[in-house]
UniProtKB/TrEMBL annotation:
Gene3D superfamilies: Aldolase class I. The keyword Oxidoreductase applies. One of its GO terms (molecular function) is dihydroorotate dehydrogenase activity. Keywords: Flavoprotein, FMN, Oxidoreductase, Pyrimidine biosynthesis. The keyword Flavoprotein applies. It holds the Pfam family DHO_dh. PANTHER family: DIHYDROOROTATE DEHYDROGENASE (FUMARATE), DIHYDROOROTATE DEHYDROGENASE (QUINONE), MITOCHONDRIAL-RELATED. Its cofactor is FMN. It comes from the Eukaryota. It comes from Volvox africanus. This is Dihydroorotate dehydrogenase catalytic domain-containing protein. One of its GO terms (cellular component) is cytoplasm. GO terms for biological process: 'de novo' pyrimidine nucleobase biosynthetic process; pyrimidine nucleotide biosynthetic process.
Amino acid sequence: MTDFVQGPCTVSPARVFAFADYNVDGSFHENSEIYHNRAYSYDEDRTWVENMANGLPERGRNLPPCERCWAPQDKWVTFLNHKLASPLGVAAGPLLSSQWVRLAASRGFDCMTYKTIRSHYHPGHGLPNIIHLQVDEQLPVSGPACKGPLYARDRLPGSGVGLHDLKPGASMGIRGDGLGGGSSGMLAITNSFGMPSLGPEQLAEDLPAAAAALNPGQMMVVSITGTPGRPGLSFQEDLVLAARTALAGGATALEVNLSCPNVGASHVALYQDAPAVEALLAGLIEEVGRKVPLVIKMGSFPDCDGMRRVLQAAGRTGVGAVSGINGISRRVELPGGAGPALGPDRPTSGVCGDPIRAAGLEFVTRARQIIAAEDLGLELVGVGGVTQANHVMEYLQAGADIVQTATGFMWRPNLGIDFQRLWASSGYSVQRADGRGGRG
Ligand SMILES: Cc1cc2nc3c(=O)[nH]c(=O)nc-3n(C[C@H](O)[C@H](O)[C@H](O)COP(=O)(O)O)c2cc1C
């Protein structure tokens, strides 16, 4: 079935993945759950609390074993002083606990970011948390086109009700093929979880278990955030507590999430506020030291100057890397004027998956130019819309040091393995578009 071996590998173009959701030609099997928009690593009909309690869904637990192609060690890449077997990882979000980290580590991903943790237990929002969208083009990040709503499609997770039941006759663009709305084949979702988190006691057990699930050539970054309005604590003091929990659990790098589009008006654009970013990072480093490198997670920037100011600020504080982008914040509505899809208290949410790839690539291209021109010494993580192996190559060509995926990880069980094959066939290297060398 497979010609994949540990060490230098041979690659057969005729390889067919043994996965029940796929036909032999790689298309989705019409009886598969993925065919019906089901993530293999997450149950969209249940809350984060229920997913944590139940563990991986059956379809994620019962994936056929895959044999991965491992690069020889002299072809491994360096990221934040760690040796990674390849430049692909999973972004903050889909890896809820050590069980999910173990899954990613076994399916072709090497830089695993543990879902954003807080200083305290937080259950997050009720359902729905994930809604599929009718989108068939790349989303802009600035200009009037950003103001208009995007529309939900297909069933409402958790309700057991299809949107067509709510709005009889509405055109939903439902193909039921798990490939997104319209005829574009886009995997497009919005997510709104309210950043749930385990508490420090549970994390003290689970973070070391997650680190223990890694193989040589892999690393775990822990994503952290502060919470505004904690009694007696500033956002920064609360962030420091989360950082201490992550460090005590054995994090080898910390990712500071400054970009979640759902945290509320006062922090919507924290990552765009250069003085605030500098003060926050300097304060964090003063409290927790420089034992492990820091990454900052950003969203997209409407203009180059704003990005330059923030990258300069990050460079001054000695941060190791910047990562972008997070989901693009948009209004998400039910079709036919039926109102906000997530309910009246959540009119906007982060859009992820295929439609944000152009914005993510633009972030990486601009950031790479600024980092090089200003000699900032920052490493760069490319995120956004990576749902196929060749998307990873596009990000590396645009200047990313490593690439991560969230939505692609959850809905595309073979993405990591497919990329490892492509990476091998490229000779474990890629030429950057700016001609300044490349990965590998
Ligand atoms: C289900 C889900 C949960 C997410 N949770 C977080 C989170 O806790 N912290 C964070 O920084 N980003 C979070 N994100 C954003 C992703 O890290 C990523 O920036 C974004 O989804 C764009 O990448 P994608 O197009 O590959 O999904 C989440 C994304 C998804 C899909």
